[in-house]
Amino acid sequence: MKAARDPQSYDRQSVRHLAVGRLPRNPEGSHCGRLFAEQVCLRCTDGAALLAYTGVGTLRVGKEPETVRVSDWIRQILRGESRTVDQSLIYLRERATADLGPACEKDGIRHVFTVGAFLQGRPWAVQIRNFRFSPGVLGPPARGFVTVAEQVADGGRFVALGTPDVVPPADLRTLHRLANIKPRQPKEFRKLLAAVNRRAAATKPDGGYVSPHCTTAYLPPTGEPFERELHDVQGAPSPVVIPFLLFGIDTTESHEVMARSARAARDGGSIPSEELDYDRAGRESVTARNPLRPPRP
């Protein structure tokens, strides 16, 4: 598992977010696996939140191990019930302690969920993590996750997480300076964040921990329109969809079905009918499950 430095910035008008994608490569250097986003967007009864994480990316579960992406785990445990932002993050923390905590403690992995949220229009910065932090002191990883939250003041908020010293100092200063600037067009900041990620990936010697491809996202106070973009990926075998929960309805699989259909139409190909099962995607969208705790046969 790899942890990449994820530049994130918040201002009182929006949350702008960059997360490094994970896409395995084969020995020749081309993509050989499915890229997945390390972000989840929540539209709740009292606001909206954009969540990302660094630390654990996947876990293997079961006697015949199945790989479970943490982003899929998040959306599947939270769907099926309309919650407030606070209720969603409390439940995420409780499940992280139970489901991720043992592996993090055993393998010595610091894991952190970082959230930019709007609660009734007020901006908040939140972290849910399995370690204590104070200036100059980074505690060891533990089983239990804790929540640290603060309301964002007029100066905005900038957070960078992951492998130290891979983001050039000049880029860090730029992101700090822009944390409270409202963009004319959200895509301007998305392009800036993608460029920062490319430079971080080229940093020696630790840039190898950062993938050159990434996803960027933009969330206004109302939660709509939620904008996201995939950068610098060529040859990904399937479309990438950032998980999005709308009042407890998981729209991710429906969006994936539509994306596969659109790609097939564009390329002049076809896809199996079972991959265009809108009815199944609709049923799954409101069925909560915990893929890290599969039912016993």
Largest sheet: 7 strands, mixed
Q: What's the helix count? A: 7
Class by alpha and beta content? alpha+beta
Q: What is the H level of CATH, i.e. the homologous superfamily?
A: Aminohydrolase, N-terminal nucleophile (Ntn) domain
Polypeptide structure, described:
The chain has 297 residues and is α+β, with helices and mostly antiparallel strands. It has a single domain (6-284), classed as Glutamine Phosphoribosylpyrophosphate, subunit 1, domain 1, CATH 3.60.20.10. 27% of the residues lie in helices and 27% in strands. It contains seven helices and 16 strands. The chain has a seven-stranded mixed beta sheet with strand order 11-8-7-4-3-15-16. The longest helix has 16 residues, at 186-201. The protein is globular, with a radius of gyration of 19 Å. The protein starts with 5 loop residues before the first strand and ends in a 13-residue tail after the last helix.
Secondary structure elements and their pairing?
Layout: E1 6-10, E2 15-20, E3 39-44, E4 47-54, E5 58-61, E6 66-69, H1 70-78, H2 85-99, H3 101-107, E7 112-119, E8 122-129, E9 133-134, E10 137-138, E11 146-151, E12 157-161, H4 169-178, H5 186-201, E13 214-219, E14 227-231, E15 244-246, E16 249-250, H6 252-267, H7 278-284
Parallel strand pairs: 3-15
Antiparallel strand pairs: 1-2, 1-12, 2-13, 3-4, 4-7, 5-6, 7-8, 8-11, 9-10, 13-14, 15-16
